């Protein structure tokens, strides 16, 4: 068989160093959100001397968010998602290594000129999933006060796992309800911060 080993062009992007590092914006959002939570927790007016107190949870979440942002930042800086120069079908659904292993086909590199229309990226934005998660967040925020935490959080959890591909509706709803109830109990009894009960007030 004939091997085509032409050097692949187009390694430079018009975005320069930022090419393949679009997740840096997501890292910035996490850091901003964590900073807001940390500031709110540290400046919170605390009544009484209950331990651990209402400051504990927001500070803990802020620290976890900082850790998550640091991990994502390290991954983005060390493994940027650059364009895939290897020709293979499926817009990235099949890795070239997998095709090479199972098909025993010769690798072929193609000479191409970089352009915003011709590059094939190894990962793609899944706007359907993002849209479903955003819809879930909006409904959660709007329904939190009138409907209450338990039902709103249950719906949000179910929407997120549904957007990520889960098809086990009743199982997901059961797990979501369990976690929402545990969080409600932890806030009400452990931290002394009652979450909105909604129309279930008096039953919780």
UniProtKB/TrEMBL annotation:
Residue span, DUF1468 domain: 28-196
Organism encoding this protein: Corynebacterium crudilactis
Record has Transmembrane as a keyword: yes
Keywords, ordered alphabetically: Membrane, Transmembrane, Transmembrane helix
Alphabetized Pfam families for the sequence: TctB (PF07331)
Highest rank taxon of the organism: Bacteria
Protein name, entry field: DUF1468 domain-containing protein
Spans traversing the lipid bilayer: 24-44, 56-77, 130-158, 170-187
Keyword field contains Transport: no
